[in-house]
Amino acid sequence: MVSSYCNRFDAKKPELTGRRIEAIGYQVGHRLAERYTMERPWFSDHLEAIKFICKDFWSEVFKKQIDNLKTNHRGTFVLQDNRFRWLAQMPVDTSIENVDLSQDPSALAENKATQAMSMHLYFPCGIIRGALSNLGIPCAVSADISDLLACE
Amino acid sequence: MIACVAVIGHQNNPLYIQSFTEADDALKLHHIVHCSLDVVEERVNNPKKSGPTLNETFLGLLYPTENYKVYGYLTNTKVKFILVTTDLDVRDADVRNFFRRFHAAYVDAVSNPFHVPGKKITSKTFAERVSNIVKSFGLSSAG
């Protein structure tokens, strides 16, 4: 779905594509929040709702729990997932079509990979934003990828 | 006998109202549902005064009027379900069971990608499921 949006519709306007994918994710997250909060008692505060997202919601949608949760107690939460299953199988394309000699080829490949990854990340961000806003918490969600190809 | 069921959205906008008795005035039932919203708000905002159970989705008997009993149920997404019944003796377990099935039907109706959240529920499947649940409620409490 993401690649059809990136390559066919609005190929020249990546910001618009990103926002559309995020909007689709928002609708999905909205409905998933209804479904997964069915039998549960209410959340007493924001932290409870975020913990619900980290444990139950994350394991239903992404099949595992969050590895790390940090907060600054002033409304910002950082959720860290060390092995995000939706991106784990993505290949990194090392063939470059238009070689730009002024730029380092390995950096170019990494840029393309990062761009592709960030497009794919709009959808989960939208899902989380939709779920939280249905629970009554208006928010903004952003994703950050670090250590893309690190291995031990 | 269930007189009417209603689904109210989180901004107190009605999403679905269905009455099941032909004799009674629909306006009166709407009025009862509307008044019960105040009771729901009060229960939600003062959890300590109204009883020991906080954080439960099922709110229980909201208030009895001269002919009816009104039960309430609040979901995590602040959507309220109201049940108006004319039965004199209704078991708590029956009402809880009713609301659980009603919630399942509601979640399925909302999962429809063509449904706009915040607008009225127009799905015929939902209406059918609700009338089935209402019919089986009448049978189980009579037996």
What does this structure look like?
The complex is a heterodimer of chains A (152) and B (143). Chain A has 152 residues and is mainly α. Chain A is built from five helices and two strands, in the order H-H-H-E-E-H-H. In chain A, strands 1-2 form a two-stranded antiparallel ribbon. In chain A, helix 2 packs parallel to helix 5 (105-134). The longest helix of chain A has 30 residues, at 105-134. Chain A is globular. Chain B is α+β, with helices and mostly antiparallel strands. Chain B has one domain (2-135): Beta-Lactamase, CATH 3.30.450. Chain B has four helices and five strands. Chain B is globular, with a radius of gyration of 14 Å. Classes of the chains: A mainly alpha (152), B alpha+beta (143). Chain A binds chain B through residues 27, 30-31, 33-35, 37-44, 134-136, and chain B through 10, 54-57, 74-78, 100, 103-104, 106-107, 110-111, 113, 117. Chain B: Keywords: Endoplasmic reticulum, ER-Golgi transport, Golgi apparatus, Transport. Chain B: InterPro entries: Longin-like_dom_sf, Sedlin, TRAPPC, TRAPPC2L. Chain B: Part of the multisubunit transport protein particle (TRAPP) complex.
Q: What is the topology?
A:
The complex is a heterodimer of chains A (152) and B (143).
Chain A: H1 2-7, H2 14-36, H3 46-62, E1 68-71, E2 77-80, H4 85-88, H5 105-134
Chain B: E1 2-8, E2 14-19, H1 26-45, H2 47-50, E3 58-64, E4 69-74, E5 80-85, H3 92-110, H4 124-142
Antiparallel strand pairs in B: 1-2, 1-5, 3-4, 4-5
Instruction: Please state how the strands of the largest beta sheet of chain B are arranged side by side.
Output: 2-1-5-4-3
- Which regions of chain A have little confidence, pLDDT < 50, spanning 5+ residues? 93-103, 148-152
CATH A-level architecture of chain B? 2-Layer Sandwich
The multimeric state of the shown protein is heterodimer
Distance between the termini of chain B: 13 Å
CATH architecture of chain A: 2-Layer Sandwich
The level 1 CATH classification of chain A is: Alpha Beta
- Largest interface: which pair? A-B, 17 and 19 residues
Structural class of chain A: mainly alpha
Radius of gyration of chain B: 14 Å
**Share in helix of chain A:** 40-55%
CATH topology of chain A: Muramoyl-pentapeptide Carboxypeptidase, domain 2
| Percent of residues in beta strands of chain A | 5-15%
Shape of chain A: globular
The 3D shape of chain B can be described as globular
Strand content of chain B: 15-25%
Strand order of the largest sheet of chain A: 1-2
**Could you state the CATH homologous superfamily of chain A?**
Trafficking protein particle complex subunit 3
Order of helices and strands of chain B: EEHHEEEHH
Q: Look up the CATH topology of chain B.
A: Beta-Lactamase
Protein name (chain A): Trafficking protein particle complex subunit 6B
InterPro entries (chain A): NO_sig/Golgi_transp_ligand-bd, TRAPP_component, TRAPPC6/Trs33
Pfam families (chain A): TRAPP (PF04051)
Family (chain A): Belongs to the TRAPP small subunits family. BET3 subfamily.
